[in-house]
């Protein structure tokens, strides 16, 4: 069989077409963030202060840590809407285990992380084994964990025990919020996995064309279970960090977090249809969502109207995403 190699010019053109839409989205997001900083810096009192910027880093970590896993899920053509209740239940679980159940700090954290992997893997198994749509599988997890978190606590906070470990998790390291450090470390881990590993390439292949990926030898069931187990683990990590920050576990915490996470991923350029996306884009999406939320609070916008603004942003982001996807497809076909 004769293998026809492409010329360097053809390869460069192919790469350019493949990256053009993504790069355009990331450049546009970066420009939007710069504009937001200029506008909010001149109109919102205290926006540029060090304390506010550090607070924004903490808020960004709450969204960002889970967003790395959700990026891979959406690239694979799936969705995970269980993040908010999973984070809240994780905060309750670690607090309960460390206090009322008498497990101690280390085992309580370990149990919480293992439980996160378990409920994520369960959603992935339902998707892989019974072909249950991921929206429905994670909706079930969303409902179950949300109810359990409130049931176990009677909707009351569970105070964490005094611990230097939780103090560090909820505090700072060299002046930088610990959750932000965790977020950045995990960003580089997931960026490497997505770009340079066989697993990452398989995720893109599944999202691009699942039947073709199966014929190429990709184990779809394994990929899907791993994807949702990962988001479960990241939700548990976020829950532990949130509990340390608040000093308690709370079944009502992180309400609506899943929508901020999905919005950040979509705004970052990840295609809802699957097969396209990047961790850098999601990082910019996380920053964009965090800056918007912080600015609305500092400007004194009514909390209900803040939800309206977030909803408009999500819709606009989806429209832009669809337009970029169609243009990229048209460019490849031309």
Automatic annotation (TrEMBL):
A molecular-function term among this protein's GO annotations: transmembrane transporter activity
Recorded superkingdom: Bacteria
Membrane topology: Multi-pass membrane protein
Pfam families: BPD_transp_2 (PF02653)
UniProt subcellular location: Cell membrane
Entry keyword Transmembrane: yes
Annotated Gene Ontology cellular component terms: plasma membrane
Signal peptide: none
Family matches, as CDD domains: TM_PBP1_transp_AraH_like
Sequence intervals crossing the membrane: 27-48, 60-81, 101-122, 134-153, 165-193, 225-246, 252-273, 280-301, 307-324
Keywords, sorted A to Z: Cell inner membrane, Cell membrane, Membrane, Sugar transport, Transmembrane, Transmembrane helix, Transport
Protein name as catalogued: Simple sugar transport system permease protein
Source organism (scientific name): Amycolatopsis sacchari
